[in-house]
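for the recovery benchmark. tokens below, seq after
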């Protein structure tokens, strides 16, 4: 029996998946203790894995590999920086081997890229995709003919930091006008606030309690502000995708992350916006919703070991 562990390390929680024969058979979630620059995170993960191995009566010899997805740039299994964990320059494979006490097979990748790998393989695709995850941040992963990339400094697919307006809102990266400030949670809420304050459109939204979930749920029910917010986000995102397409020329853009629950209303508007901005050479590129939700990272880690 061969097993794989897929470990999706997050700033708040870490998801650990145990895979057997292409199936996710067990899922665990532990808190990521980010105290003291995240020095406990990897130890806590290792302890949980040891506990699972004992419970499931699995020996380390039966593990094909351990895949890690982390929220930051990675080059050759070295985590360059994870701001929300406090990690900097950690050779994660070496550290994990030391903690687990065996020379096991370890692979590490950026979480959004790895989520792209998960979606790509789970959907059984054999083409080129750009995966975009919409949440607090906006991340992405590029897979070209089945191959994923890290980039020179591990920042491949950092779609959230494509510049939309050099004088735009301040981004978490310290620059102004990144895509993330329009298509991430803060962007949705800012558009809604502006429209409510303008007062030209009717809405059931509460200006003091804005969230993309409320915005797109109401948009689907015909709320004027909700619809306009979706259109504005889709306009910027579609514009960015038109530019990405001119470089990557993917078959499909796959939209995931918490905000992608907006569903068809976002996808339809995105396609329309993309068609407006994209040059003739990339016409025909389509948009699809991601399928794996919160499990995409664990699946990606699994496929990273298997492929
Ligand atoms: Zn940025």
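predicted aa per position
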């Amino acid at each position: 029996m061969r097993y794989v562990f897929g470990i999706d390390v997050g700033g708040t929680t870490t998801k650990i998946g145990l895979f057997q024969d292409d199936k996710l058979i067990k899922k665990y979630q532990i808190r990521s203790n980010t105290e003291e620059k995240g020095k406990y995170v990897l130890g806590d993960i290792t302890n949980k894995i040891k506990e699972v191995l004992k419970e499931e009566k699995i020996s380390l010899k039966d593990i094909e590999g351990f895949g890690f997805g982390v929220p930051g740039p990675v080059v050759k299994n070295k985590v360059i920086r994870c701001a929300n964990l406090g990690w900097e320059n950690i050779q994660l494979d070496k550290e994990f081997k030391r903690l687990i006490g065996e020379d096991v097979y370890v692979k590490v990748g950026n979480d959004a890229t790895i989520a792209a790998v998960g979606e790509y393989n789970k959907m059984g695709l054999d083409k080129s995709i750009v995966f975009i995850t919409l949440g607090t941040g906006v991340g992405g992963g590029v897979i070209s003919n089945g191959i994923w990339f890290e980039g020179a400094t591990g920042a491949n697919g950092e779609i959230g930091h494509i510049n939309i307006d050099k004088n735009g809102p301040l981004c978490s990266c310290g620059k102004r006008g990144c895509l993330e400030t329009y298509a991430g949670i803060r962007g949705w809420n800012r558009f809604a606030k502006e429209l409510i304050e303008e007062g030209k459109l009717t809405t059931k939204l509460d200006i003091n309690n804005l969230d993309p979930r409320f915005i797109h749920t109401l948009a689907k029910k015909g709320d004027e502000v909700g619809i306009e917010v979706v259109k504005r986000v889709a306009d910027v995102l579609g514009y960015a995708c038109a530019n990405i397409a001119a470089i990557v020329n993917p078959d499909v853009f796959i939209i995931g992350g918490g905000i992608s629950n907006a569903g068809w209303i976002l996808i339809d508007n995105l396609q329309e916006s993309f068609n407006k901005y994209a040059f003739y050479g990339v016409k025909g590129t389509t948009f699809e919703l991601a399928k794996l939700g919160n499990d995409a990272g664990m699946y990606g880690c699994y496929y990273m070991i298997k492929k």
